[in-house]
Amino acid sequence: MKIFIDTADINEIREIKELGILDGVTTNPSLVKKTGRPWKEAVSEILKECAGLPVSVEVVATDTEGMVREARELAKLGDNAVIKIPCTEAGIRAVRTLSAEGIKTNVTLVFSPLQALLAAKVGATYVSPFIGRIDDIGYDGMMVIEEVVNLYEVYGVETEIIAASIRHVDHVRRCAELGVDIATIPYKVIKQMFRHPLTDVGLERFLRDAEEAGIKI
Ligand code: E4P
């Protein structure tokens, strides 16, 4: 499973990239707002820092024409720009046009397998079903991921699935078990993936024994 980081914070991106585990980045207007930086400056820096890795940047227009215009502008910011388009009728129409132009897209705000099917039909590069926001309203977000994975498998769909709105490590584990293509994970959750109390206890014991045995390398 590929690991994307779900943030617009350049320091978080740099740190995770340096670990050698980063396959891409997803941003959205709320994440850019959190940085307190002008959006173009923030987004351009991420695209440059992550040259060669896909970076999703979201449009803000809601009509097809506006989305296509914004997408073309955003695509000029870097070869690695992937344009995030909301899963609305206008959005699906925009993705059809952008696919024909060879502009990579990520259909976002997907909450059902049928929305994911529509995104695939117009040639979306990626589709982003949200997990946490479904859990938040009392349903099972992971169920939607499973349904999208199954549906795409049945039809041999090439659109890659990005599991989004991930809130904790168990979401990541279950995505990996389902064979999801990509999980876009917040910085804090990526850091938690490294941790296990038995690793800490085990390391402490090995180091104590090494000292007692006089092991020096
Ligand atoms: C990423 O593509 C999504 O915009 C993001 O994962 C949404 O996460 P949230 O539901 O925690 O805001």
Automatic annotation (TrEMBL):
Name the residues annotated as catalytic in the UniProt entry. K84
**Where does it localize?**
Cytoplasm
Q: What is its EC number?
A: 2.2.1.2
Keywords (A to Z) from UniProt: Cytoplasm, Pentose shunt, Schiff base, Transferase
Major localization listed first in the record, in broad terms: cytoplasm
Checking Gene3D superfamilies in the record gives: Aldolase class I (3.20.20.70)
- Where is it found, in Gene Ontology cellular component terms? cytoplasm
List, alphabetically, the CDD domains matched: Transaldolase_FSA
| Keyword Transferase included in the entry's annotation | yes
Designated name of the protein: Probable transaldolase
Q: Which organism is it from?
A: Thermosulfurimonas marina
Which lineage is the organism of this entry classified under, starting from the top rank? Bacteria, Pseudomonadati, Thermodesulfobacteriota, Thermodesulfobacteria, Thermodesulfobacteriales
Underlying gene: fsa
